[in-house]
Amino acid sequence: MISNIQGIHHITAIAGNAQRNYDFYTRVLGLRMVKRTVNFDDPGTYHFYYGNETGTPGTILTFFPWEGIASGRAGAGMATEIGYSVPADSLEFWAQRFRDNKIQQDPVAQRLGETYLSFRDPDGLKLDLIASKYPDGRQPWTTPQVDADAATKGFHSVTLTLKSIKPTASILTDILGYELREQEGNRYRYITPASPTASVVDLVEAPQEARGLSGGGTNHHVAFRVANEAVQMEFREKVLQKGLHITPKINRDYFFSLYFREPGGVLFELATDNPGFTVDEPLDQLGTHLKLPVQYEAMRADIEKSLPALNS
């Protein structure tokens, strides 16, 4: 019997300047860089992974920082918001921290029984810090500036904006095992019962919303978590039976991936837990070395010259 999707595995977005991206996510937001590598299809571009101490699935936000890329536009057919779970009393801390660092933010608001603070990263990517109403016992990565009373615990949710939610909702429920739990206005909340955290996908139905335009400050894809390759292949068959195209299994060094585009336009990935981020770096050194896929190792000297300098 097929195992369930275990929530969000990671989310990948597009940034511009690599140093600016690194400084914001490690120094302002207080995440750990758990892997510094390159884009498999473009080795002259970094691929950064930020998360908790070990890079646990459900905490990993990744970026392709393409230097000089034009800004994109969030819109229909895209993941448009990334939600992080934070302690209930931390939003005032974060609002002040964002003011101190001149980060664009919105007033604290309420949605589906939760208090949240929306902000934009330096490229304009929209994120939410959410005082989750769901129990979250995950241990956060902390820094001297962001302690455990405020630190992000990992993903709470991802929001997809769609012209119509029905085709996407069918993928979530019929293939991925999500259940519709709540609705508020044009926002529909789907949750997987298989995981207590990183378990929420919100669908926002916006028939008049312009299609999103990929570029800096937009999300590239959303990855869902599966336990292993055997489970992954079972889901591949379910996607094929739905009449959708899905890639063969691809080795991403730290997990194995399948990709398919759901009918609303969002690129979905199914990613395994194995082998994890310590496969090529010890835990205490995660993110401190440039790690290259094996096919690019012979080109290391040229790749290092082509990548922007990164002061960490």
What does it look like?
The chain has 312 residues and is an alpha+beta fold. It has a single domain (8-306), classed as 2,3-Dihydroxybiphenyl 1,2-Dioxygenase, domain 1, CATH 3.10.180.10. It is built from 5 helices and 16 strands. The strands form 2 sheets. An 8-stranded mixed beta sheet has the order 2-3-4-1-13-16-15-14. An 8-stranded mixed beta sheet has the order 6-7-8-5-9-12-11-10, with helices on one face. A hairpin with a 2-residue loop joins strand 6 and strand 7 (114-120). The protein is globular, with a radius of gyration of 18 Å.
Strand order of the largest sheet: 2-3-4-1-13-16-15-14
Q: What is the number of helices? A: 5
Low-confidence stretches: none
- Secondary-structure content class: alpha+beta
The separation of the N and C termini measures 46 Å
**Mind telling me the C-alpha Rg?**
18 Å
**Biggest sheet: strands, sense, closure?**
8 strands, mixed
Examine the coordinates and then state which fold CATH places here, giving the name of the CATH topology: 2,3-Dihydroxybiphenyl 1,2-Dioxygenase, domain 1
Mean pLDDT, as a whole number? 97
DSSP strand count: 16
Summarize the amount of helix as a percent range: 10-25%
Give the CATH H-level superfamily. 2,3-Dihydroxybiphenyl 1,2-Dioxygenase, domain 1
The CATH class turns out to be Alpha Beta
Per DSSP, what share of the residues sits in E-state strands of 2 or more residues? 25-35%
CATH architecture label: Roll
Shape: globular
Q: What pattern of helices and strands is seen along the backbone?
A: EHEEEEHEEEEHEEEEHEEEH
The total number of structural domains is: 1
